[in-house]
Amino acid sequence: MSLNEVLNDEAKRAAIIEDVVRLVDGEVAKQRGIGGVAVKAGYKLVQGVKPGFVRNVVQTLLPEFAAALDPIREEALSRGETVSGYFQTHSQEIAEALLAVTDGRAQRSEHGSVKGAYGKLRGSARKNVEAAVPGLGQIVEKYTTSS
């Protein structure tokens, strides 16, 4: 079952969103050093000012992310690999596919402040997204291989 098909099931869609939000929360919590302090502070600020912001972003971007991830998932299966294993060994490629979605979304934004903030964060985003890819692979596998 493709990720897009899974998203048509409201209960599974809600569960995927919760799992991805937990993944993001966990990745933020792992941040270390001065950069990590900044990421954690920014994340806490956003969550305080606009509760549910991360969940809303995940919910909004999920269809585009699914469209980007489904061909990668299919590639893994065609090679006889597990989805989670493939995601782990191809984290750079998958991170770029995900960032292409957010790049496009930022580019289409009519809010200059959004474009500016995204532009400032984009450079460091790749390593953070790459770090989250194995966990994302587990989520994709969980929902596309079970009935």
Secondary structure tally: strands: 0
Low-confidence regions: none
Number of domains: 1
Spatial extent as radius of gyration: 15 Å
**Ends distance:** 8 Å
What pattern of helices and strands is seen along the backbone? HHHHHHH
Helix proportion: over 70%
Which descriptors would you attach to this protein?
147 residues; mainly alpha; 7 helices; 0% strand
Mind explaining what this structure looks like?
- The protein has 147 residues and is mainly α.
- The protein has one domain (3-145).
- It is built from seven helices and no strands.
- The mean pLDDT is 90.
What is the fold's blueprint, element by element?
Elements: H1 3-7, H2 10-30, H3 33-49, H4 53-78, H5 83-89, H6 91-108, H7 112-145
Helix pairs in contact: 2-4, 2-7, 4-5, 4-6, 5-7, 6-7
Summarize, please.
The protein is mainly α.
